[in-house]
Amino acid sequence: METQKKYRRTLSFEFFPPRTPEAEGKLQVTRDKLAKLGPNYFSVTFGAGGSTRDQTFETVVDIKESTGIHASPHLSCIGLPLDSLRDTINKYKDAGIRSLVALRGDMPSGAGVASQGSLRYANELVEFVRKETGDYFHIDVAAYPEFHPQAASAAADLQNFKRKVEAGASSAITQYFYNPDAYFRFVDSCEKMGVDLPIVAGIMPITTCTQLMRFSEACGAEIPRWILKRLRDFGDDRIAIRNFGIDVTTELCEKLLAGGAPGFHFYSMNQSEACMAIWQNLGLESTADQVDRVAAQ
Ligand code: FAD
Questions:
Q1: Ligand 1 centroid to residue 122 C-alpha, Å
Q2: Nearest alpha-carbon partner for 173 in 138, 207, 206, 208
Q3: Which residue ranges have their beta carbon within 6 Å of ligand 1?
Q4: What is the 118 CA–ligand 1 centroid distance (Å)?
Q5: How far is the CA of 184 from the centre of ligand 1 (A)?
Q6: Which one of 2, 14, 146, 217 is the catalytic residue?
Q7: Which residue's CA lies nearest to atom 22 of ligand 1?
Q8: Can you tell me which atom of ligand 1 is nearest the CA of 143?
Q9: Would you give per-residue pLDDT tens digits along the chain (297 residues)?
Q10: Are 99 and 137 contacting, i.e. CB atoms less than 8 angstroms apart?
Q11: Does the annotation count 14 as an active-site position?
Q12: Given the CA of residue 44, which atom of ligand 1 is nearest to it?
């Protein structure tokens, strides 16, 4: 964990683009509450849950203009032709956006190989963005402490992560996890491979049982048995789940901070309550003026 200790702390919240006027109103309220905490940036997912590229662009620009806080769009390459990726990148550049989360993404089920676009993996997207725009963007990539579900092996996944870093990634955000040792060991393996960049821990607050199980099944994140059993015991008692979830996630973050993690990226699910409670429990002070991650944005 020694490499991580030299990096300044980065705190961020992730949103998905709202799909109805009502959801848009709710996101504005969430965003304004979380903005008061002084995160370094907000990020906005791309294509997840059926949202479109345009919705990501509009949400990012709206966040940047209405909060004054950096906004980072996610961009995935799978299924998209190079021209379309180039247009999207240039559109962000024109809008003064200085950072991106570069991903492969997942093919919608039923889509054929023919519709897979020109780039196959996230390392190729990082390379493409660097070729097109040089050092203009701060590029985040995804990291998987419990390994990506499609990886041939843990060792192959680590090599693939290294490839993304060598292609020009600036920092990484992990998939969520509830076992801090998975993160510490992942970072140690990176150090041994000579991979040195901030690896920020992705944190999923626990607020519901069924949704968490569904997501974890899809993305390969393990929910420890003891957490699952307790969540199941709570049944429909949302307050009990909420309180337990906040406790468990706060303790996870405390262990990560003590071990030298250089920050947290909260998967907010467009909700502020659990994120704010965890933030408060951790006593995280505003970092907005402490770190200028993307100075010119
Ligand atoms: P890659 O790094 O390309 O890896 C994908 C798989 O291919 C891995 O198993 C890897 O080991 C393997 N691999 C990589 N390179 C090679 C190679 N050269 N040869 C052979 N195998 C290789 N999804 C969305 O749709 N929208 C989002 O906004 C979104 N945001 C995310 C944000 C974060 C922080 C994270 C962690 C995930 C996000 N995802 C999102 C999910 C992500 O798109 C999926 O996990 C996807 O399956 C992999 O994307 P990747 O960028 O990690 O892919």
A1: 6
A2: 138
A3: 45-48, 74, 76, 101, 103-106, 121-123, 142, 148, 150-151, 156-157, 160, 163-164, 173, 175, 202
A4: 15
A5: 20
A6: 14
A7: 160
A8: 36
A9: 888 999 999 999 999 999 999 999 999 999 999 999 999 999 999 986 566 778 999 999 999 999 999 999 999 999 899 999 999 999 999 999 999 999 999 876 555 544 556 899 999 999 999 999 999 999 999 999 999 999 999 999 999 999 999 999 999 999 999 999 999 999 999 999 999 999 999 999 999 999 999 999 999 999 999 999 999 999 999 999 999 999 999 999 999 999 999 999 999 999 999 999 999 999 986 554 444 444 434
A10: yes
A11: yes
A12: 28
Side chain identity, residue 186 = F
User: Ligand 1 mean position to 104 CA, how many Å?
Assistant: 5
Enter the tokens of residue 151: 């990886």
Whether the CB-CB separation of 270 and 28 falls below 8 Å is answered with: no
**String of b and e for 184-222 (b: at least 16 CB within 10 Å)?**
bebbebbeeeebebbbbbbbbbbbebeebeebbeeeebe
- Residue 5: both structure tokens together: 């200790």
270 torsion bin: left (phi>0), alpha (psi -120 to 50), beta (else): left
Tokens, residue 183? 């993160």
> What stretch of H or E contains 72?
strand 70-76
This prediction has a pTM of 0.94
Which residue shows structure tokens 């944005």?
297
* β-bridge mates for residue 282, sequence order: none
- Residue at 127: amino acid letter: E
For the beta carbon of residue 63, count every other beta carbon within 10 angstroms.
25
